[in-house]
Amino acid sequence: MGKVTVGVAVVGAAAVCAAAALIARHRMRSSSLCVKAADILKELEEKCATPAAKLKQIADAMTVEMHAGLASEGGSKLKMLISYVDNLPTGKEEGVYYALDLGGTNFRVLRVQLGGKSGIEFTEFAEVTIPPQLMIGTPEALFDYIASELAKFVSDESEKFWLPPGRQRELGFTFSFPVMQLSIDSGTLIRWTKGFSIDEMIGRDVVAELTTAMKKRGIDMSISALVNDTVGTLAGGRYENSDVCIAVILGTGSNAAYVERAQAIPKWHGPHPKSGEMVINMEWGNFRSSHLPLTEYDNTLDAESLNPGEQIFEKMIAGMYLGELLRKVLLRMADEAALFGETVPPKLKTRFILRTPEMSAMHHDTSADLKVVGNTLKDILGISDTSLSTRKIVVEVCNIIATRGARLAAAGILGILKKMGRDTVRDGEVPKTVIAMDGGLYEHYTGYRNCLENTLHELVGDQLSQHIKLILSNDGSGIGAALLAASHSRYV
Ligand code: ADP
Ligand code: MG
Question: Most buried among 3, 106, 385, 482, by the most CB within 10 A?
C-alpha cells in the first residue's frame, strides 16, 4: 500500500507553484518567490516523510524501549510507570463516585452513579479552564483553585445520587503528568509537561496536596485512586468492552497505557497481583529515537519550550504543538519566500498563535476557494487577500504536519502491539485487541484520525487489521478515574 495521506484534497507543490505563477504574474518577484515556497514545501515533505519501513523501525525502537523501561527504573526514556492498577472495573461496582481530571488546559469534575449490573446510571460533569497564571504559580494556588471548583460541584449533588449506607464519598483523581506512583492512592510528581511549570511541586505527593486543599474547602471525601488519564481511559474502555487492553490519548499532549503481565516487569518488586496483570503508564510522549523524522522546525520548537530535550515524540504528534509547527513553517515561507507579501505579517511571529483546532479547520476546508483558510489567515494572523495558490500551500503544510503526526502515533501503537505479542497472527489464533482512544485531537481532527487508522491498517496488514479495533472512549479518563476509585474502594 502506498503512502497514506490525510484524506483531504491535496495539491502537489508543483501545481500550486504553476497556479501561483499564473495568478500573480503582476508581481515581479512572484515566480522566483513561488519557486522558493515550493522548495520549502518540498523539503518539508521530504524531511517529514514516514514510509512504512521507517514506521516499522520506529515501532521496533518503541518495543525495545518498553523492555528497557520495564527492566529497571531509569532504564529508558520511557518511564513505563507502574500504575498500581491491578484490578480493572468489572461492572459490578455500585454507588456514587467522583472524579477530578487535571491534565491540560481544562479540568473536569464529575460524578457517576454506578448501578451494578445496570451499569452507569447517570453522570454529571463540569469543565473549568485553568487560568494560565496558575499553571506557573504555586502548588497551593493551583490546588486551592481546583478544590474550590470541586466544592462548588459537590454542593449541588442531587438526590438521585446515592451511596450504600455507612460509606464516605470517594474520588478518583486523574492527574495526567508523569508521577512516580507509590500506591494506588499516592504518588509524587516527576516533572511537568504541557505548559505547566511549578518547580516547588516536583517530588511532592499530589494526593497529599489535593487532600489538604479539599479539607480547607470543607470537602468530606477520600481520594481512593490516583491515576493517569491513559490509565483512566483504559479503565473506562474496559468497563464498556472487555477486550480493551491499550489506551492512547491524543489531546493537548499524548500518552499510552496498556495491560502488562506482572511477570514481564522485572523492576516490580511488590507482591504479585492476584490478577497477574498490571497496567503500565508508558509516558510515551518522552519517546525518542534516531529514526524519528525531526526537522529544523521541531528543533526550534523544542529549544523554545518549557521542557527542552523532553517529550520529543509528543512534540511531533500532539495537539499542543501541531499548530505551532505549522506557524513555524509559514513563518519561514513568509520570511524567505514572501508567501504573504513583501513583509512578514507581525502576528505570525507570535508563538502558539495558531492553534491545532484552527489548523484542522483549515485542513478540512472543502470550499472551492478555501474560504476557511482565507478567513483563518485573516482573523488570526491579520493577513487579508490571500490568493488561492497561497491558501493551497497552507493546506498542504497542514497536511504534511498532520500526516506525519498521525503516522508516528500509529507506529507507536504498533510498538505496543509488538510488546504484547499481538502484532502477528500465530497458529491461526488471533486475540481481539480493542484500543480505547481519547483526546480532543483524535476526537475532532478527522483527517488526523483517519490517517492514524489507515496507517495502522497499512502496518499490520488486512488480516490482523480485522481483529484490531479503535474505539473513542469519550471522556473515558474522567469516568475511568471514578470507576477505579470504585474498583479500589476502601470499602471493598
Ligand atoms: P486535554 O488534552 O487538555 O486533557 P482534550 O483531550 O480535550 O484536553 O484535548 C484538547 C486538545 O485537543 C486541544 O489542546 C487541541 O490541541 C486539540 N483539539 C481540540 N479540538 C480540536 C479540533 N477541532 N481540531 C484539532 N484539534 C483539536
Ligand atoms: Mg485529557
Answer: 482
User: Do you know the residue count of the chain?
Assistant: 492
Pocket of ligand 1 contains residue 285 by CB under 6 Å: no
176 is catalytic: yes
Q: Which of 101, 185, 205, 229 is catalytic?
A: 229
Secondary structure letter of residue 309 according to DSSP: T
Ligand 1 contacts CB of residue 232 (under 6 A): no
Residue 351 is a catalytic residue: no
| Mean pLDDT lowest among 14-23, 34-43, 435-444 | 14-23
What span, in angstroms and rounded, lies between the C-alpha atoms of 99 and 102?
Answer: 10
- 275 beta partners: none
CA of residue 94 to ligand 2 center, whole Å: 25
pLDDT tens, position by position, 322-368: 999 999 999 999 999 999 999 999 999 999 999 999 999 999 999 99
CA atoms of 272 and 292, how far apart (whole Å): 36
Assign a CATH topology to domain 83-241+475-487: Nucleotidyltransferase; domain 5 (3.30.420)
Burial of 132: CB neighbours in 10 Å, binned 0-12, 13-18, 19+:
exposed
pLDDT band at residue 168 under the 50/70/90 scheme: very high
Residue bearing cell 491534565: 103
For 252-285, the pLDDT digits (tens) are 999 999 999 999 999 998 888 888 999 999 999 9
- Could you state, in order of their start, the residue ranges of all structural domains in the chain? 51-81+244-431+433-466, 83-241+475-487
The whole-angstrom separation of Cα 175 and Cα 227 is 6
Going by pLDDT thresholds of 50, 70 and 90, the confidence category of residue 34 is low
Structure pTM?
Answer: 0.89
The whole-angstrom distance between residue 233's C-alpha and the CA centroid of its chain comes to: 12
Considering the domain 51-81+244-431+433-466 in this protein, what is its CATH number? 3.40.367.20
Eight-class DSSP state of 258: E
Q: Look up 327 and say whether it is catalytic.
A: no
Nearest C-alpha neighbor of 445 from the set 320, 330, 351, 327 = 320
Angle at which helix 13-23 crosses helix 30-47, to 10 degrees, equals 170
